[in-house]
Design brief:
Elements (H helix, E strand, L loop, with lengths): L1 H11 L10 E2 L2 H11 L6 E5 L5 H6 L6 E6 L2 H10 L7 E3 L13 E6 L5 H10 L4 E9 H8 L9 H7 L2 E9 L4 E2 L6 E8 L9 H13 L5 H4 L6 H4 L13 H7 L15
Parallel strand pairs: 2-3, 2-5, 3-4, 5-6
Antiparallel strand pairs: 1-8, 6-9, 7-9
Amino acid sequence: MAADVSTTFAAMFTLKKSLGQHFLKDENISRKMVAALQQHSFAQLLEVGPGGGALTKCLMEINNIDFKAVELDEEKITYLQATYPSLKGRIIHQSFLDIPQPFTGKFTVIGNFPYNISSQILFKILEWKDDVECSIGMFQKEMAQRVAAKEGSKAYGVISVLVQAFFDVEYLFDVNEKCFQPPPNVKSSVIRLLPRKEIANMKNEKAFFLLVKTAFNQRRKTLRNAVKNLFDAAILEDQLFNKRAEQLTVEQFAKLTYKMNVNFPLGGMGK
């Protein structure tokens, strides 16, 4: 069976390792992702990296939504438009990382995200956080675990704190390597992001980002040593600075931004 599927993929288009292409071939996984998607209502949907269309096929069955897909690979766009004629005019031929916000107002994001740019995809979603009402993505399992990790875990880091500051993260299910063509050398997992009802109170997003990034840049050190350039000496005497970055909650990081000795103009999150 695997050989037949491989032959079929080869006949349809070229798999490009440079773009991190591993295409989903198990329709059961696509159905599970769509089922998770439909647990929350939406009117506008963006699919990231439709590739061979395994997930797209299921998404096209959803009625009464404004659907768009963003795909960088021209060969895949040609294939998708030939296979699903109703996609014409709905595919954005560009890198997801470079596109402006695709809809006005609230929208949902879904995709089998390219693993080589998965952290950048999450930062893009954070840029759009005021309008992203839900995001369901397939990631390398290690990345999914990092995004969902809680304080005290070795997997807890910059991406954990930044995403969880604005979204509730649900770890949905794992995906076997055999569900892809070609099979990746890593495990995969699907997670869902939903906006937090209450955002942690912080001075501003740029200060928050700087603090989190600086703290985890030397995660083996105590917070006092890792972020000493961001606080006055008197503030650093607080017992909280005896901890390491991975021991602080999102709320504790947010609260500390008010004590930082650096100022930023109001604005979005830096990278």
